[in-house]
Automatic annotation (TrEMBL):
E.C. number: 3.4.21.-
GO terms (BP aspect): proteolysis
Keyword Cytoplasm carried by entry: no
Protein's cellular compartments: Cell membrane
Protein's name according to its UniProt entry: Protease SohB
Ranges where the Peptidase S49 domain occurs: 160-303
PANTHER family, A to Z: PEPTIDASE S49, PROTEASE SOHB-RELATED
One GO MF term: peptidase activity
Chief localisation class: membrane
InterPro entries: ClpP/crotonase-like_dom_sf, Peptidase_S49, Peptidase_S49_N_proteobac, S49_SppA_C
Keywords of this entry: Cell membrane, Hydrolase, Membrane, Protease, Serine protease, Transmembrane, Transmembrane helix
Any matching Pfam family: Peptidase_S49_N
Membrane-spanning ranges: 12-32
Length: 348
């Protein structure tokens, strides 16, 4: 009996230790997740990346003896640069290369424009350090999506314009509808020859199951306070008055869209391009929708010689479940993109 008592006491001690360890681990994980949820700003010196790539190619084309000489000279050069940097740091002199900076942002938009959460952080980061001679390059890819999401994304870019920070937007694949709403904020739009540009229009569609439900003797009751609280419904019987109001709302949104584009690009003949159609890069140039034809790679290579090019990316830390649902959402967005490329129009 005494043995069982001691064994039970031993098990209780073990259980207490295990529970204590589990509680401490849970607290640490919780604190870590809270810290990660704040996100992380990643800064990449793209100038150095391109320079290293150029050097690698140059060295690869040399013969063995020349490569040895190059590496020897490179070591000597790096040693002298490190010595000079150390002397400057010791003297308290700031390390300046005399070049203005180009901050490079990326926006690959989904239907709900959820990427605006990172964009707002990136714009804030740039505005906190930007100097009068600096500029911003945004690589944009989006077929558009919900009105309020892309309206907010365009407003984030407007913050740069309001602070007189030169903004160039490069479109390699697509900037249509809400994507073009973002692009038109820029001082300069550069698009690849076959990039899809435009689609200044608004579309909305919903299925209606009312006739099916009536056939099954199922009644749907919809009660609203306000004549047009609901114009069209999924399950109830839609009226011609509701349809007309719905069309009016679409036209009002389209007018706002056209007004915004006209404000950003006053020289554009808005009525000729606000038909919901899209054009390829070379055609968009003729229409005045863009300012130049070219790829983002050409643009960056042209800037690297005279500027320090810096990539800015803000990443939100996600929980495990959010990562799973995010991957599912991304898959749906890719599917929607494929449908759009086969002839479907974006929402905005």
């Amino acid at each position: 009996m005494e043995l069982l008592s001691e064994y039970g006491l031993f098990l209780a001690k073990i259980a207490t230790v295990v529970v204590a360890i589990a509680v401490i681990a849970a607290l640490i994980i919780n604190l870590t997740q809270r810290k990660r949820q704040r996100g992380e700003l990643k800064v990449t010196r793209l100038s150095e990346h391109y320079k290293e790539m150029q050097e690698e190619m140059s060295v690869a084309l040399l013969d063995g003896h020349q490569q040895k000489l190059w590496h020897k000279a490179q070591k000597k050069k790096l040693k002298l640069e490190a010595k000079a940097a150390k002397a400057k740091a010791k003297a308290g002199e700031p390390e300046e290369n005399g070049k203005s900076r180009v901050y490079v942002l990326d926006f690959k938009g989904s239907m709900d424009a959820g990427e605006v959460n990172s964009l707002r952080e990136e714009v804030t980061a740039v505005l906190s350090v930007v100097k009068p001679q600096d500029q911003v390059l945004l690589r944009l890819e989006s077929p558009g999506g919900v009105v309020h999401g892309y309206g907010l994304a365009a407003s984030q870019l407007q913050r740069l314009r309001d602070k007189n920070v030169p903004l160039t937007i490069a479109v390699d694949k697509v900037a249509a509808s809400g994507g073009y709403m973002m692009a038109c904020v820029a001082d300069k739009i550069v698009a690849a020859p076959f990039a899809i540009i435009g689609s200044i229009g608004v579309v909305a569609q919903i299925p209606n199951f009312n006739r099916f439900l009536k056939g099954k003797d199922i009644d749907i009751e919809l009660h609203t306070a306000g004549q047009f609280k609901r114009t069209l419904t999924l399950l109830g019987e839609n009226t011609e008055e509701g349809r007309q109001k719905f069309r009016e709302s679409l036209n009002e949104t389209h007018d706002l869209f056209k007004g915004f584009v006209s404000q950003m690009r006053p020289s554009l003949d808005i009525e000729s391009v606000a038909t919901g159609e899209h054009w390829y890069g070379t055609q968009a140039l003729d229409k005045g929708l863009i300012d130049a034809v070219g790829t983002s790679d050409e643009l960056l290579l042209g800037l690297i010689e005279a500027h320090e090019v810096i990539g800015i990316r803000y990443q939100h830390r996600k929980k495990l479940m959010e990562r799973f649902t995010g991957s599912a959402t991304e898959s749906i967005d890719h599917l929607l993109m494929r449908w759009w490329q086969r002839g479907q129009k974006p929402m905005m």
